[in-house]
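Standup notes, structure subgroup. Blocker cleared on the FE2/S2 (inorganic) cluster input:
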Amino acid sequence: MGYQKVARASDIPSGRGLCVSVDGIDVGLFRVGKRVFAMENRCPHAGDPLSEGVLEKCVVTCSAHGWDFDVRTGFRPDDADGFPIPCFAVRIDESDVYVDIEAVINMPPRSPSARPKV
Ligand code: FES
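Run returned:
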C-alpha cells in the first residue's frame, strides 16, 4: 500500500493529536515543531484514543488515566524496555502528511489478525 496522504500538517492542532483512519486502523498524528509523528491511536491501558490526550514536547498524556507515551518512539518515557505502541513512517511533502502503516518503525510488523481486540 505504501504512503497514503492522510492530512495537512496544519490540520494537526498544537498540543493535541489528530486521529485519522488508514486502512481501518486509527492513527494518531502528533506535531512536534516541524515534524509529525504517527502511532496507533489506541492507549494500551484501556483503549482510549491518545489523540485526545495532551501533548507536551514529545510526550502525549492519555486523557483517560494519565499514561504517557513518547510519540517519537511509542515507549513510555519511564519504561524504555516496555512494549511500545506501533509507530509508523511519516513523510511530509509541501505540508501534506503521508503515513505508511506497513512501515512500522519501532517494532516488528504484526498481522492485522494479531492485533488485540478492543
Ligand atoms: S486508557 Fe489511557 S491511561 Fe487508561
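Discussed briefly. The pocket of FE2/S2 (inorganic) cluster is lined by residues 43, 45-46, 48, 62, 64-67 (CB under 6 Å).
Next: hand off to the docking folks.
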